[in-house]
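To: structure desk
From: M.T.
Subject: fold request, one chain
Message: Could you run this one when you get a chance? Sequence is below, nothing fancy, just the single chain.
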Amino acid sequence: MEQEAHIIRSKRKTLAMEIRPDGTLVVRAPLRLPQKEIARFVQSHAAWVERKRKEMAARPQPVRHAFLPGEAFRFLGQKCFLRYSGGKELVALKGDVLVVPALPREQLRSKIIAWYRAQARLVLKQRLDGWARKTGLCYSGLRITSAKTRWGSCTGKNVLSFPFFLVMAPPEVIDSVVVHELCHTRFHNHSSQFWQLVHSVLPDYDARHRWLMDNGLQLRLEEAAQ
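Reply: Done. Structure tokens follow.
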């Protein structure tokens, strides 16, 4: 059976596939590779695609938030619990309590996202700079995004991007994404040299990445149906 795929073409020399958390099949292909060769490649890996999609479906699904008092959120791998404040001050984390103003749900969601984005910039800047010093790898800029399908990216000019909700993950998992993208500042591909560099920096990278693949869908701010 033919597999539907999202094809991304670039200057790479080989074909590669990945299954995103939502089950989307992504094929990365050379710029001028004929479509029929891509289709043949996908078809030859149909069993792998089906197996990976089943694995994705069996993983924990996104937590949908109602933004009500007592509801659990995550920050640096730990749970914190929502509590309304009496005033209209900014969102603040006090111990394991996430204090928020009592606002309509959509406004409150926007406030919480703004808080996560600010925390993400602080946390990721600190961890990027720490790993850059340890490895001698250099990046030229940091962007915090709302991307839902990528944990990180590196531009040709070594600007690194991460989604704000990455700071919901444990620090060691955050570091695995940070190191992955920093290594792309030297190798803008997923060659064997790239992976050798990643594993030389983090020998247990695979275990850290596996946690993200198994639990990543829960690191979201999906809104519950009203």
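Reply (cont.): The chain has a mean pLDDT of 89. Let me know if you need anything else for the meeting.
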